Amino acid sequence: MTIDFTPLYRSSVGFDRLASMLETASRQDASSGYPHYNIEVTSENAYTISLAVAGFDRSELSLESHQDELLIKGKKASVDADAAPRNYLHRGIAQRNFERKFQLAEHVRVVGANLENGILHIDLVREVPEALKPRQIQIGVAGDRDNLIEAS
To answer: What is residue 146's predicted lDDT score, i.e. its pLDDT?
Structure first.
């Protein structure tokens, strides 16, 4: 299913990034679902992404966070030519190379990652800067200059 965002572009200002993110997400969902993953809300401002990376060693995985995107890559080491070839009756554990991208909201950053039992856990936290947090403003009485907010 394809969604046309043209009406959004025509009738709004400043939402072009949102529409682009939606278009990118719809394209990614159509791509390979490998590796499978979960996104968990662990607290009000914390999240964990868990990817099933069975068969991958820590040295074969890489994480890169750049601006508002998290890129996770898995690249299997080449098979040693001197190693004896394996003869599988059934091969159900996928060990192919992959790239998985996640769009991160503003002020969300990666704070840690660990590999446990074939699952890569990536911890994220949203840290809104103090300057952007809401603040209370006192309402003064006419003529009372002590309650004015000074310009910085």
So the answer is: 61
